[in-house]
Amino acid sequence: MTSTVRRAGAFAAVGTLAFAVPFAAGLASPAAATVAATAPFLVVAFFAMFAIGPDTPVFEIFARPGDYEDGRLYGLAAFALAAASLAFLSIQFDLPVWAFVATVVIVSYGNFGQRVAHRWRSDEVVATAGFVVTGFACGTAAAVVAARLGTGSVAPATALFLAGTGALVAALFRSVLFERDDPLVVLSVGLLLWLLFELDPGAGTTRVFIALGVSAVLGYVAYALDTASLPGMLTGVLLSLLTIVLGGYGWFAMLITFFGLGGLSTKYRYEAKQDRGIAEANEGARGSGNVLANSIVALVAVVLWAASPTHISVDPAVFLYAFAGAVAAAMTDTFSSEFGGLYDNPRLITTFERVEPGTDGGVTWQGIVAGLVGAGIIAGIAAATLDVVGPVGAALIVGCGFVGMTVDSVLGATVEGTVVGNQGVNTLATLAAALTGVGAALAVSLV
Fold first, then answer.
1. Between 88 and 346, the higher pLDDT residue
2. 3-state DSSP call for residue 354?
3. Do residues 11 and 62 lie in contact, with contact meaning Cβ atoms separated by under 8 Å?
4. Which keywords does the record carry (predicted)?
């Protein structure tokens, strides 16, 4: 067994201490329960920092490369302290105990699965798949077992959804951060699962399975076609899963249409775009930052949809138009840039003077038409899949796309590159479109 696999297995063994927390939570005294829940991890942290010397076999098992310099197991101590912090939240602030156990197991056992997969085949995608699959399977089982050991319960669909989400989020964070930042990953995943549990999406097991399967297949296809990098693929899969479960199939149809057609439009006449200097980097494969910049507003909208009306006193339809408007804006911007950039004589949107192709804020009439076609596609899907979106609502969504495209161009001509970057401009444009959708829907009484 290689040292990395052995170390990952040792960390997984430490993660197994999380199963002691359900028993501690059953103690009558909150103070005693807190001590009992956090003590196993605090003891591990103490030994890692002060009692395990650099010349001992245990040190060799747990040590990461940076631990040798000072002769202390910083990685193990930080992981144990992060777990102790979540255990404290589970006792004192009603973080579900099974969610805590699932979080620790997802990260620790997922890491073990990643190391085993990497040893079997030295490929980044295979290793990440090992993390996600192992973390998802073990996290689901851990949630169910921990609920039975404690006093609470968890529906199978909830366990599947939260374990899948947690595994994807953990894999994504580990792909964009240093792998030794597992403490940050543990805390982030735990807090996210707590939020999603409080939303109580109420999706059935079949829907969750469909969401997991469809998202995984489409994510792999996107990566295989080089329309997304590995972090971009993970981000897209995560967004797809959340959209199906929290929103529904109609919401997902809009989002996946943007991902699919947007990615293919980037590949369209890629060499010609390279000659013009307007091609996306990395052979057109979009990273997590690009995917999030175009989708974060839509993701917030679907989360708010799930939170209303039980958690916030707002008509849920408001957030539907915010979501559709944001996706339409992302589609119009992508289509107008990828197709319009292939034509000559663009004009700066603020002064209408001719500029070179690829100039921020430069537009062509062909790009505008392409953008409106993209918005029309999103609007048509919304009208076909969602009963609340009629002809007026579809026209509104097209208008949101136009607003987003215009805001993107104006910001590109004025502040891009000096105040904000391209991804910031994309986020602001989708936000403007979402707010337009909300305001217009309220004005014409669509909600």
1. 88
2. strand
3. yes
4. Membrane, Transmembrane, Transmembrane helix
Report whether 102 contacts 163 (CB < 8 A): yes
Record the pTM. Answer: 0.87
Structure tokens at 317: 């339809």
Say which residue the tokens 């529904």 belong to. Answer: 248
The answer to whether the beta carbons of residues 378 and 258 sit under 8 Å apart is yes
pLDDT at 197 over 70: yes
Strand partners, 362: 348
Upstream peptide bond of 309 is cis (omega within 30 degrees of 0): yes
Beta bridge partners of 286: 228
What is each CA distance from 174 to 158, 167, 302, in whole angstroms? 24, 11, 25
SS3 readout for 237-255: HHHHHHHHHHHCHHHHHHH
Question: How far, in Å, CA of 379 to CA of 321, rounded?
Answer: 10
Which two structure tokens, joined as six digits, stand for 181? 């930042």
Rg (CA), the chain: 24
What's phi and psi for 228, nearest 5 deg?
-155, 145
Q: What are phi and psi of 32, to 5 degrees?
A: -65, -40
Look-up of token digits 């197709």? 339
State the virtual CA torsion across 148, 154, 155, 156 in degrees, nearest 10: -60
Q: Which positions ≥6 away from 286 have C-beta within 8 Å?
A: 227, 228, 229, 232, 263, 266, 280
Of 323, 278, 353, the residue nearest 434 (C-alpha)? 323
Phi, psi of 155 (to 5 degrees): -70, 145
Cα gap 48→77, rounded to integer Å: 5
- Residue 251 CA to residue 393 CA, distance in Å, equals 14
Q: What does the alpha-carbon distance between residue 447 and residue 160 come to, in Å, rounded to a whole number?
A: 33
**CA 87 to CA 38: how far, in whole Å?**
6
> Under a CB-based contact definition with an 8 Å cutoff, are residues 275 and 238 in contact?
no
pLDDT at 166: 95
The vertex-151 CA angle with 150 and 153, nearest 5°, equals 90
User: If DSSP codes are grouped into helix, strand and coil, which group holds residue 287?
Assistant: coil
Residue 194: how many CA atoms within 13 Å on its side-chain side?
A: 17
